[in-house]
Every structure is written in structure tokens, then in C-alpha cells.
């Protein structure tokens, strides 16, 4: 593991003006030496011109939210994050990295959920480099590493949870916040060695695979109908029970078992029917 450490670099404006002055002085010296036949002056001027190229080689620019890793013959010397025109040892190799937040829009993956159902899933990951040394030297290509590990984490997440289920069960569709937190934590564990911080990770696409989508939609609709009917029946039974109790408590009517059964049947039909009940007016006696 490589640990990042800051390397202080000098401002580049002074060396820039010095290099320009060396170039101008060298050109003037060569011309003067040729005119006056001074070989020594020509040699000094040429050497000064060569030295100016080394000064120019030590100049580099760091933009906002960028960093430059400096290496001397393969040895890591440090990272400079000072913005503007900078100057360092001309023999340093300079590797520039962006520290800006980046988006990874993952491709749609076809995987099996915990129950073995084929689903399509994709995620969007927001990440940034926080350790330039680890990003450069501990993985081969940090961008490709982030992409590969993100895909692997999404596949593992999809196989760890069912697509859908009961309300008290953690599912991919029903508990998106908890699933996203799990995805972000797993991704951070995987990307720590690359010097990358995961800012956010969320599912951007989730659906059953096309070959089972229609059948699963029918199952969901059937489950919804059953749940709704169960709720209606529970409410209707409670209302019938309350009606009979209040009629008895207020001594408004007395029913034998047969009449009570008929009344319960009629009330349940009225309360549980999908259509509005049509009232029938009895103009005779109660028993006609």
C-alpha cells in the first residue's frame, strides 16, 4: 500500500521569467559571438539555452480539483495539490489526476435474485479520488477498477435479496434506501485499496427480466386483489358484528338463528360486493 504525502512545490512565475531571460540572452550571446568571432561566448550561450530547457521542463500547471504525483526515476516523491503555475525538479515525472466527483452509470445487468428470479438491475455510482498514491500505484487502472468492482457489487447485492416480498422483508424493490446503503458500504470496502471514496450509490434500474415480466405482473396483481379482498372481508365482518350487537343492545330487533343468518348474509353481500347493492322495498310484513 502506498500512502499519499504532500510535496511542497515552488511558484512557477519566477522560474518562467528566468527561463525566458536565459533563452533571450542565449540567442543574443550566439549572435554576438558569431559577429565578433568569440567561440567561448557561443559555447556559453548554447549551454545557457540548454539549461533553459531544463527550467521549462520543471514547470507545470495544476488546475482546481486536480493533483500531480511526482516521481523521480520511478520513486514516488509526493503529490502536489497547489493550484496555478508550479515548479519542481525538472527530472521529476509528473502524473496528473482529477479530484472531481465522477458519475458511473452502470450498464443493465441480468442476474438472479435471492429467489432465483431473473431480473435486470443497474446502479449509478458517484465517486472521487482521495488518495492519489493508491489510485496510481496500487491498482492497474483505477477507472477500470471502479467499473469492474461496481458491477461485481451490484451482482452480489442482487443475489442477496429477493426482488419483492412481504412488508417486513428487505427487498430490492420495497426497501430501496436500505439496499442503497448496503451497496454503498460494500462498494467502499472494495474501492478503499484504490484510494477512491464512494459519495453515493443508488439503483437506477430494477425490473423483472422480459421473459418473466408478464407472469410476475399477473402474480403481483393477483396478490394485490387477494390483499384488498381480505381487508374488505375483515372490515365487513366487523361491521356486521357491530350492527348485530347494537341492535341487540338497543332492543330494536330480535332475531332467531335463521333470521340472523339471513341478515348476516345480506350485509356481507352488500359490504363485499364490487357493485352497488340494489335495495328491495318490502311492503308487506316482516315474514312475507
Index terms:
3 domains, alpha+beta, 22% strand, 10 strands, 288 residues, single chain, Tetrahydropterin Synthase, Chain A
Task: Tell me about this structure.
The protein is of the alpha+beta class and 288 residues long. It has 3 domains: 10-98, no CATH class; 102-208, Band 7 domain (Tetrahydropterin Synthase, Chain A), CATH 3.30.479; 221-272, no CATH class. Helices cover 49% and strands 22% of the residues. The chain has helices at residues 13-36, 39-57, 132-137, 142-160, 176-191, 210-249, 257-272; strands spanning 10-11, 59-62, 66-72, 75-80, 84-87, 92-98, 102-105, 109-112, 118-129, 196-208. Strands 7, 8, 9 and 10 form a 4-stranded antiparallel β-sheet that branches. Strands 1-5-2 form a 3-stranded antiparallel β-sheet. Strands 4-3-6 form a 3-stranded antiparallel β-sheet, with no helix packed on it. β3 and β4 form a beta hairpin. The longest helix is centred in the C-terminal third of the chain and has 40 residues, at 210-249. It is rod-shaped and about 135 Å long. The protein starts with 9 loop residues before the first strand and ends in a 16-residue tail after the last helix. The mean pLDDT is 82.
